[in-house]
Amino acid sequence: MPPPTAPDPRATGALAEGDGPRERIEAAAYRIFAERGIRAAGVEDILTSCGAAQAALYAAFGSKDAVAPAYLDRLHPERRAVIGAAVSTRWDPRPWPGSSTSSTQ
Question: 40: how many CB neighbours lie within 10 A of its CB?
């Protein structure tokens, strides 16, 4: 088993030195969406948190709605891969009849 690696700081909404406006907006959105939810977060909240101008958000994303997929990409990269693989192979999560993993109701 390989040794554990440190998580990518960007996956937690952290910033790296030299990040540009898009990265700062993504990091701020990650924090605010996680705290309040996507619908409750306002564009002004995100911009105030990261110190970016409204023009930077619209230049990078086009709208607040376009920031949400970036948030989800940071939040669930592993889950997205597993779900994508399951969907592409038409994986059925139900256990085989008679298997030891069958649940009782």
Answer: 10
Query: Residues 102, 94: contact at Cβ < 8 Å?
Result: no
Lowest mean per-residue pLDDT among 21-30, 41-50, 63-72: 63-72
Q: For residues 105 and 102, what is the distance between their CA atoms, to the nearest angstrom? A: 10
pLDDT digits (tens, 9 = 90+) for 82-102: 777 777 776 566 776 766 654
Q: Let me know: does 21 contact 60? Beta carbons within 8 Å.
A: yes
Q: How far apart are CA 93 and CA 31, in angstroms?
A: 32
93 in any annotated domain: no
* Structural domain boundaries enclosing 20: 12-88
73 part of a folded domain: yes
Check if the beta carbon of residue 71 is closer than 8 Å to that of residue 26: yes
Residue type, 19: D
> What is the number of domains present in the chain?
1
Residue type, position 4, single letter: P
